[in-house]
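Example record

One chain of 279 residues, shown exactly as stored in the release files.
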Amino acid sequence: VSGDLKKMGLGAALVLLFIPLFILTVVAKFFIDRSRAAQRMADLKRKEAEYHRMSQQVTEAKLQALQAQVEPHFLYNTLASVQALTEVAPVRAHAMTGHLIQYLRNALPKMRESISTVGQEMELVRAYLNILQMRMGPRLTFDIAVPESLLATPFPPLMLPSLVENAIKHGLEPRREGGSVIITAQAQEGKLRLVVSDTGRGFGDTVGAGVGLENIRERLAALYGEDAKLTLESNSPSGVIATIEVPMDGLRAQAAQAATGAVPPAMPEQPRTRTEKVL
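Predicted structure tokens for this chain:
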């Protein structure tokens, strides 16, 4: 009986010892699994943030490459026109030089920025159209009608000049009689709509398929997501109406961080639990 009592006491002691160990093991596994899940979620969020930053950088690089292709051609033609006018019409050459200076003063800073305003983009487009009007003469007429209340509204740089360039290059220049370009802006239901309409021959079979237009679509998607869009439609009796629609309240969160150059802080490493260290 004495031996049996000793065995029963030893068994009870072992049971009382292993019950807390079992409970501790279960609790430790719960916290370890939760810590690992949090770490996996942090890694996933970090990869998503890196993907958005890389997409923004690729889109901006495409825009800079496009501008690098367009600007020299435009500058060479303008300088050649100025050189020719200095001999036959010095007054016009002086006026064109002034428009070119105004264009460069507005355009060059925008190549290093990710956000502009409607007023700044309109000044850039006005200088651009003044130069082309002096080169094309009566074949080009234009009108800019923008409410003063919208001039300070944020707007991505160099998108509007790309639409105007497409309208003239593909719509007006191929026509012997030329045509007109009308630029308007309006705010509707929390959206800013910039419209470029021309009376040219339109884009033909390649409507909406140009590199510049695709670049605009990619930049709008990177800056605003699904809240912005570029639409093209026929103008009556001839020409194309191009419309950029963006939210009035600005960029989405990831794009705003990329546009201002702010890098979101890295997700802090999850501390190891005391139980994990022990195990």
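Notes: The beta strands are 116-117, 140-145, 154-155, 179-188, 191-198, 229-234, 240-247.
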